[in-house]
Design a protein that fits this description.
alpha+beta, two-stranded parallel ribbon, elongated
Length: 67
């Protein structure tokens, strides 16, 4: 990951971290939290600008949105 992070910084414009192709919020809670925590660290470091994911509307409860 370090090589990729350095490449993104040298490339100029950071983009978003994206999770597509499934129902991201339907992952089991510990897995979802671990992924979001790791992604949030990279956003906080300025390597990426945000987090984007695809999911189904029936998998978006208020508790999940709070994460």
């Amino acid at each position: 990951m370090a090589a990729f992070s350095e490449h993104v910084r040298e490339g100029g414009r950071p983009g978003e971290i994206a999770f597509f192709g499934g129902t991201f919020t339907a992952l089991d809670r510990p897995c979802l939290e671990a992924i979001l925590e790791a992604a949030a660290r990279k956003v906080a470091e300025g390597i990426f600008t945000g987090i984007r994911f695809s999911t189904r509307p029936d998998c978006l409860e208020a508790e999940i949105l709070d994460l």
